[in-house]
Amino acid sequence: MATPAAIDHHVQTEHGYINATDHPGEGTPYVFLHGYPDDASVYAKLVSQLQPHRSVTFDFVGYGRSQRVDDARVVEGQRVAETEAVIDQLNLDKIVLVGHDAGGPVAVEYALAHPERVERLILMNCYFGESPTLRFPDMIRLMGEPHLVPLTDALFADPMQLQWLLEFTATNFGYGPSEDLRDKIIIPVFFGIPEKQPDALKAVRAWTGRLLDDVALTTELVASGKTSDLQVPVDVIFGRNDPYLNPGVAEHLAGLFSNSRLELVEARHWLQWDAPEELARLITRQR
Question: In the CATH scheme, what is the code of domain 7-136+210-284?
Answer without folding.
Answer: 3.40.50.1820
